[in-house]
Each structure stands twice: as structure tokens, then as C-alpha cells.
Specification:
The chain is mostly helical. It contains 27 helices and no strands. The chain folds into 4 domains: 130 residues, Serine Threonine Protein Phosphatase 5, Tetratricopeptide repeat (Alpha Horseshoe); 66 residues, Serine Threonine Protein Phosphatase 5, Tetratricopeptide repeat (Alpha Horseshoe); 81 residues, DNA polymerase, domain 1; 71 residues, DNA polymerase, domain 1, CATH 1.10.150. It is 63% helix and 0% strand.
């Protein structure tokens, strides 16, 4: 099935949806087109199709926000999404009545939910009447054996399933998990990595593999696993926690050059968007999105920008060219709030390119010292201080001079009262804010 076919005649049964996922995500170009079409469906307010499309791409929280109805496809979308989000009790409550479904994918999801929720007696009874493929029936028999402590027998069954059907993902995952729990890290990593070819990669695979990578001090790979989870589900609690820990461990290996790049990157990311020549359409779109600095901009991905109203490919390409000139790209912000340092980013860029001070004229020693002061030393009101330090991520007084009065007044909760307060503090130091771009400052 191609993306157009999916949205013209979306699958009406869980088994058809599973087959559609396999066909739509195998080829990278087809997958990219499909993901774009799913975003358009969500923006167009077509919840039924958007929910099914979001399930195919593995965006399970969006599925739960969009899905409605009580037919078998809706039950499958909700129940399987709850399972992926590690909410087995809710999934079991929802799917228990679907054990008798004639659709094998829905019956399998119901059994998986019951076992994951610890409702083993119901699962045993349900297995007798469930309509399953031969491989799935053997799999769930093995799952129940595993829950009873029959690990060797269960693993032998999983291996038999894979001999007959190498594409049975659940059997491969259970083998990987048993090797993981048994302490056979080498086998577990190999089996988990074999599952990385699947799209979307199961969250449990990424989390478990990330933990194993951490155990072997492969922190960059671990961050990649957790980051892949967070890209689809930014609220995933374990992925957020594990990413933070792995990233902190990775930080211990940063060399001086990378630290210098990070310092330089943070300076560049404070640059206001108003300093760049953009079309009126692009500038207005960014303003409507409350994007004021380069840091705000690179915190978004291409997909996120394209979801905003009136923001199209032309504006996107224009912005990408601006970022490329600075050695930057979209999607640099990590879940923990830090930023990835792109390989193409140069730490030795000329300061004047990022923060042109020529408009100040001759800078006195007193003014230079004032610009090195911390903003906190100005004793500003809470509202004004938060706007500068928390909203714009500024640190020094000199950082404020990047912005015009118009830039600051365009920020939420920063009005003329805050502007007058700030100007008064700066005038005491022989400084003031520009009233417009290109204005020359006459000095104190």
C-alpha cells in the first residue's frame, strides 16, 4: 500500500493495519512521505484516519488523543497504544472482551495485555478460544510458560517459532529479554540490534538496548536509543530519566574542544531572529510561533514547523539556509533542554558575525566592564528578570544589547513598564537599548 492509498481507503481491521505498517515503513522514502501525510491529516482535523496513521508511525500518545469509537479497529488502536506506553492494566481492561474476535491481531493484543497485566487465568482461558495464527498460538503458550517460571521451555519455543517465521518480532524480543535478564549481554545486544531494522522500532527494544549500552559505557549509543524514543514520545518518563543519566555520563568524556564549542554555541543561540534577513512571511510565521532567538528556532524540528499554519516548504528552506550559514540545523534541542553541537559548527567564528558591536562606536572601559556584569546584578523586577534570563536565556548585561526595543516588546509579559525599567538600569551604566536595527549608539 502507498501513502495515498492508505488515506483514500484506510484499513478497517487490525490485521490490515498491521500489514499496512509493514508496507509503508519498509522503504525510507515511502515512510517519509507517509509521515508527512499523517501530519497533514492531523492538521486537517481528520481524527479517524490520523489516529490510524499515527499508530503506524508509532506516535502512540497522539493515537490516544485522536481515536474514537468502539469498533474493533478503535479498540486495537487504543489497547495496543496503551501497551506500548506501559499501561498494561488499562489495556487489559479495554481489550479483555475482544478475546473472541475473529481478527487475529486484535485477539493477540488482548492476550498480550492480559499477560502483561498479570491476569494469567483469563489469558489461559482466552487462549483456548482465541483465533490466532499457529505461530502466535505457540508464542502465547510459551509466554504463559515463561510467566510460570519455565524459562528454558519458553525460550526453546521462541527459537522454534523463529526457525519457521524469522519475522516474528515478539518471539525475538522475548529471547532477547531472557538473555538480558540471564546476564548474557552479548546475545541480548545481538538480538535487540536485529530488531532495530523494524519500523517503528518498539519502545521496549530501544529502552532495554540503551540500558545495555550504558552498562558497557557506550553512552553515545545509549543516548541515541533514548533519543529515538523521545522523538516519538517526548513525555516518556523512563526515556527522559535514562537519557539524562546517559548524557551526564557522556559529558565526562567531553574534551576541551567540545566544551569550547558548547560555550560558543550558547552565545550564538542567543542571537535574535531579527538580526537575519528573512522574508516577511517567514518572519511573521516565526513571530506567531513565539520564536525569538536562534535557540528557539533550532529547538523545533522540520516536522514541527511544518505543522504550524501558513508555514510551508518555501519558508522552511529559507530558514534552513540561514541556519546552515551558521553551522546549525533544526532539531538540536535535547529533551533535557541542552543542545546537540553539530559537527559542522565552528567554535572559532568571528564574534562580530554573531554580535556586531560596531553600532556602539568607541566603547569605554567602563562600558566594557558593565557589559560583562551578570544580569542578576541589575536588581530588576521579577517579571523583567525572568523575561531576560529564563525566556531569552541571557546571562550578561552585554547580551541584552543584541536586542532592539521592538524585539523585547514583542515578548509575552514584557511591556513598556519593563522596558523603561531596563533602560533606566542600563543608562546608569552608560548603556541603552537600540530603538531599531542599524541604529548607531552615541555612547554614555
Amino acid at each position: 500500500m502507498d501513502p495515498a492509498g492508505f488515506f483514500a481507503a484506510p484499513p478497517s481491521k487490525p490485521s490490515d493495519l498491521l500489514r499496512a505498517r509493514q508496507g509503508l515503513l519498509t522503504d525510507p522514502q515511502t515512510a517519509e512521505k507517509f509521515e508527512s501525510a499523517v501530519r497533514e491529516a492531523r492538521a486537517a482535523g481528520n481524527p479517524r484516519v490520523a489516529a490510524a496513521g499515527s499508530w503506524v508511525t508509532g506516535e502512540y500518545r497522539k493515537v490516544l488523543e485522536l481515536v474514537d469509537g468502539d469498533d474493533e479497529l478503535a479498540l486495537f488502536l487504543q489497547g495496543s497504544s496503551l501497551l506500548e506506553l506501559d499501561r498494561p492494566a488499562e489495556a487489559a481492561e479495554l481489550l479483555a472482551g475482544a478475546l473472541g474476535s475473529e481478527d487475529p491481531a486484535l485477539a493477540a493484543a488482548a492476550l498480550e495485555a492480559l499477560i502483561a497485566a498479570g491476569r494469567l487465568e483469563e489469558a489461559r482461558e482466552g487462549l483456548e478460544k482465541a483465533r490466532l495464527t499457529e505461530a502466535d498460538r505457540t508464542f502465547f503458550e510459551a509466554r504463559l510458560l515463561e510467566e510460570e517460571g519455565g524459562y528454558a521451555e519458553a525460550c526453546a519455543a521462541y527459537e522454534r517459532i523463529l526457525e519457521q517465521d524469522p519475522s516474528h518480532l515478539q518471539a525475538r524480543f522475548r529471547l532477547a529479554l531472557r538473555a538480558d535478564l540471564h546476564g548474557d549481554d552479548e546475545l541480548a545486544v545481538r538480538l535487540y540490534e536485529e530488531l532495530l531494522d523494524q519500523r517503528p522500532i518498539p519502545v521496549s527494544v530501544l529502552i532495554n538496548l540503551g540500558v545495555l549500552y550504558e552498562d558497557h559505557h557506550q553512552y553515545e549509543k545509549a543516548c541515541g536509543c533514548y533519543g529515538a524514543v523521545l522523538k516519538r514520545d517526548p513525555k516518556h518518563p523512563r526515556a527522559r530519566l535514562y537519557f539524562k543519566d546517559a548524557h551526564e555520563s557522556l559529558d565526562m568524556y567531553y574534551d576541551e574542544d567540545l566544551e569550547r564549542k558548547e560555550d560558543r554555541l550558547m552565545q550564538v543561540l542567543r542571537t535574535p531572529i531579527s538580526e537575519f534577513e528573512l522574508s516577511v512571511r517567514a518572519r511573521n510565521c516565526l513571530s506567531n510561533m513565539d520564536i525569538r532567538t536562534l535557540g528557539d528556532l533550532v529547538s523545533h524540528t522540520e516536522a514541527e514547523l511544518l505543522e504550524f499554519k501558513n508555514f510551508g516548504e518555501t519558508s522552511l528552506n529559507e530558514i534552513k539556509r540561514v541556519l546552515a550559514a551558521k553551522g546549525l540545523r533544526l532539531g538540536l534541542r535535547r529533551e533535557d533542554g541542552s543542545f546537540v553541537v553539530p559537527e559542522e559548527f565552528e567554535a572559532d567564528g568571528r564574534e562580530s558575525e554573531e554580535f556586531d558591536l560596531s553600532w556602539l562606536g568607541e566603547i569605554s572601559d567602563q562600558q566594557r566592564e558593565a557589559m560583562e556584569m551578570q544580569i542578576s546584578s541589575l536588581n530588576l523586577s521579577v517579571r523583567c528578570h525572568r523575561a531576560l534570563v529564563e525566556r531569552l536565556n541571557l546571562q550578561k548585561v552585554g547580551d541584552i544589547l543584541r536586542y532592539t526595543e521592538e524585539d523585547l516588546l514583542s515578548m509575552p509579559n514584557f511591556g513598556i513598564t519593563s522596558l523603561n525599567e531596563l533602560n533606566k538600569k542600563l543608562e546608569e551604566l552608560g548603556l541603552r537599548i537600540r530603538t531599531g536595527r542599524g541604529e548607531e549608539y552615541s555612547g554614555g
